[in-house]
Design goal:
This protein has three helices and 14 strands. By secondary structure, it is an alpha+beta fold. Strands 1, 2, 5, 6 and 9 form a five-stranded antiparallel sheet that branches. A five-stranded antiparallel sheet has the order 13-12-11-10-14, with no helix packed on it. 17% of the residues lie in helices and 42% in strands. A hairpin with a 2-residue loop joins strand 7 (78-79) and strand 8 (82-83).
């Protein structure tokens, strides 16, 4: 069964790697967004990678060595000791987002103590809580309900930051 994987590539080699993967009949996705570039003599709209140094590959397990051997590929992106699998839904969200919006930029989520978050999966799905402790790959979240507090260790990639109320 095919799964999406994030591949870490040499800087400024995203388009070249995507082309080489396509030449090898390996399904891949390089999210691009249009941006205005200014040179000394002109301005031009260019397609730039949304995620610098990353390309996504939709492959089966047997294709991993072929991807790793592709010129410009450094390695798969790892999460908790395994190549990180990207859900189909997340790739579709990126495609939809790029198809409907302009002037896009990527901002990383940096968890902070007292940040409000929503848990995205697991037994506490859709629960809202506050971060009370930050670990290497987990955050400790306090969830107040039924007049008591529940505290859960949740992987960082399973929480969604909530907008700050003003």
């Amino acid at each position: 069964m095919k799964k999406w994987f994030a591949i870490y590539v040499l800087s400024r080699n995203e388009k070249k790697v995507a082309s080489l993967l396509t030449d090898q009949n390996i399904e891949n996705y390089l999210p691009l967004h249009k941006t205005m570039k200014q040179w000394s003599d002109r301005k031009k709209m260019v397609d730039e990678p949304l995620f610098r140094s990353y390309v996504f590959a939709h492959i089966v397990e047997d294709e991993k060595p072929k991807v790793r051997e592709t010129k410009g590929v450094l390695n798969f992106v790892y999460w908790l000791g395994q190549p990180a699998v990207i859900r189909d839904q997340e790739i579709e969200i990126i495609k939809h987002f790029l198809g409907n919006y302009e002037n896009i930029e990527v901002q990383e989520f940096t968890p902070e103590i007292n940040s409000s978050v929503k848990i995205q999966s697991g037994p506490m799905t859709n629960q809202i809580g506050k971060i009370i402790k930050i670990g290497k790959n987990k955050v400790k979240i306090i969830i107040e309900s039924l007049g008591c507090s529940l505290v859960a260790d949740v992987p960082i990639n399973k929480v969604l930051p909530l907008p700050v109320k003003k």
